[in-house]
Structure formats: structure tokens, C-alpha cells
Amino acid sequence: MNLAGRTAIITGASQGLGAAIAQHFLGEGANVVICGRNAGELEAQRERLSAAYDAARILAQPTDVSSRKDVDVLFGAAQARFGRLDILVNNAGIYGPMGSIDAVDWDQWAEAIAINLTGNVYCARRAVDAFKPQRYGKILFLSGGGATSPLPGISAYAASKAAIVRFTETLALEVRDWNIDVNAIAPGALMTRLTDQLIAAGPERVGALLHARMVKLKQDGGTPLSLGAALCGYLAGPESDGLTGRLIAAPWDPWPFTEEQRREITDSDIYTLRRVVPKDRGKAWGDR
Q1: Which residues are catalytic?
Q2: In the chain, what is the straight-line distance between the N-terminal and C-terminal CA atoms, in Å?
Q3: Sorting pLDDT into bands at 50, 70 and 90, what band is 2?
Q4: Strand, coil or helix: what is 32?
């Protein structure tokens, strides 16, 4: 019961990874506030969770994170129901339009940024307001491969996920004096309906390489949702206190970290975004 007595808001939790995170948190003793844009799917998820856990610990609130009004209502409802808030998991996200930047619908591209970046940042803003008075809190962002490599054909997704990681690093420095930890998570290659969307888009729109990767992922099954959910649980719990401003990968990084590893991470640029310079690749040129 690593999260007993704590309350978490989990966005994009009507299905997929968000639902898995909610289930894991409930199993660790937390109260959970789940939200999503589809009220019907959200209610169905609340009923599934309530069948396995105490329904009094679950609140479902329909929310579009790109709407400031919706987010304000979400946080108000969470605080009215549970009082203190301790954890925010920013999981809501979409791929956005698929295709080259000169061909995709511009409004759809901007909508993806509004959900994946602006909406996530505004949720974090509201969380900081709640966490500062108690001088403690945990903010988690879902990032992933879009932050660490180019993804032609889904540029809104790639740009927003890279921006989320740099925002994570920046916010972590802004709020560290209040003992608020901020981290981003790469959950691995997941088999969700987003994967089906990429496959359906075809190689002409998302590129042959990415399309082939998604087809193989569909065949192999991908990274279990439970692994990313467990990493969220670790980073939301007391065992990770002080670990902040990092992008941590569920399937590849050796978490939970030892005390010595946490110290080495904190004192270095491990698990951060950085520019590769010539000397990083063994070149003798490039320094002035």
C-alpha cells in the first residue's frame, strides 16, 4: 500500500495506459480521480474499477484537458471529494493528424498541441497551486519515443512530446524548493488503439519505417501496460522522493533506483535531453 491515503488525478484514464495506472494506484491504496473526453467510456471504466476496489475511492470526471474550464472543474471536483491532492499523472494525449506538414489539416495539428502540450501544462499549473501549500507533490508526464527521435508523419505528436520533456526539466527546477517532484515517463511501445490508428493510416502517411514498426508491434504484443503503470507508482510514491526532472523509460532503465543511483542521477545529466556535440562521438573538431 505504497500510496495509501494519497489522492491522484489521472488524465486520459478511460482506457489503455491511463486505466492501467488507475488500477495500479488503487491497488497501492490511493484515491483516484480519472478523467477523459468520452463520458460513456469513462463511466464504464469507473464501473470496472469499482467492481474490484472501494467505489468511494474513485471519482470519474469527464474532462477535455485542452479546455481550461474543464480542467478547473476537474481539480475543483477532486478537492471537493477528497480534500488534499498529492499526485497528477498527465496521461491524456493523441497522435494528431498523420501525414506531411504541408498536407495535414492545420486545425487538427493545433488541436494535438492543445491537448498534448498546452493542456498538460495547464493541468500541471493547477497541480502546483494545490501542492505548494502542503510543500509536497508528484507530477508525472507521459512522453516516450516522440521525445527522443524524429517521427515523420506525426509531427504534432513528436513536437509536443519533446516539448513535454523539456517542460518537465524546467518545472522540476521551478518547484524543487517545495519538495514537488516532476518527471516524464517513456512507457515503451504499447499496443493501444493509437497503434491501430497508425497502422490504419498506412505507410504513405506515416512512413514505411514507422508503419512497419507498428505492424510488428501489433504482432508481438508490445510492452505490457502494467510496466508503465508500475513505474508511475514508483515515481508517485515516497521511495522516489527527490528524484526529479528526468525522462525515465519503463522497459529499459533499472528502476527502482538505489540510493546511490538516485544521487548519481541527481548530480548529472543522466535521463535528460541534451544536444550531441562532436566530442560525444569521438571527434576531435567542434570545440572553440
Answers
A1: 157
A2: 54
A3: very high
A4: strand
